[in-house]
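Figure-free illustration: sequence to structure, shown twice.
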Amino acid sequence: MRAAFLKTPGLQWNCAVAGNLLLGLAADVSCDAILGGRVSLHQPRKGHRAGTDAVLLAAAAPANISGLMLDIGAGAGTAGLIVAMRSPLSRLGLVEDDPLVAALAKENLALNGLADRARVHEADIFSSKARRAAGLVPGEAALVITNPPFADPDRVRASPYAGKRSAHVMQKSGAEILTDWVRACLALLAPGGTFLMIHRPEALPDILTACGQRIGAVSVLPIHPRQDKAANRILLRGKKGSRAPFALAPALVLQEQGRFTPRVEAIHLGEALIDW
């Protein structure tokens, strides 16, 4: 789901410079302001672009994090940037394996004044060796958030744009690849730390299986595009080492009469969080 972006001439000019430096062509990169202008993003004009999923993921995180927060499969860094900017005592790690997108994420850290307490880890999340080589320490993060690729490559027609394809489609088919993704995330989470994921509802059984006994206090929040439509996203939250029972949170409805509800509009403007 794509959020509405605010654009300013100044940000567009800065992005033209970044486009020349990063991708060789200024036209390849846009610069967008989200959350009512609170966060600025360099991102590809074609391929995967930040949207409502990232905004909701960030809004579902605790209001103020201290310690290390990791955004796994961060793309250009949207969700992690949002949480870090409202959490001045946090340290941020953006984990991304696409070199071009990782370069944009580094630009976004500087653009938003976070370079002194954040870094990009360019790593294959599935490889423990690659994670360690990129500076990711097991069991260190107070918060791990993730918006993984949703699609099974055997069931979808992948985008011709490499960045969009890698953001939307898992590298391999089958439930085991999602299991490996979740378990890699949880390996980086500290005892007592919070895990937060956005995904499609049909993936919930596989996600819960992957979590196993690694986390407790699991809560699932369904997200409905409209009141009369089935949920097409879920947020899942859990705490490592907790023994608290499973809970189903009240649903979030995104739109009424063809536009965001006042609550969801406030979330997109950075004026509200998801209280669950």
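We now fold a second protein in the same way, so the two outputs can be compared directly.
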Amino acid sequence: MKLKPEDIDSKQMLIHIKSAKGRKDRYSLLSDTTLKTLWEYWQQYRQVKWLFPNPDKERHITIRNAQRVFEKACERAGIKKKITVHSLRHSFTPHLLENEIDLRYILELRE
């Protein structure tokens, strides 16, 4: 969860994820809804260093803290199925395919 405000590219609708799986930098798609939610969040909290900081503000939120937040959100939403933050990554491609996104484009995104 090492995202910084400058990692959000609202013009190209991308999120720059640094040191992702395999320690590679990656880009991921940014939906209009996600951009709007991030903008509202940023307007309210005005995080400067980290988009999602730990309480001390000098460090980013940990994966475990993000998982706890996600679990609470699932609980509040009434989701009973056991899912993790990481499982969202695995649902990305099937959702694109369901929405008839070209497979060549999806493969490019996964590189």
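Summary for the second example: The beta strands are 8-9, 14-17, 26-29.
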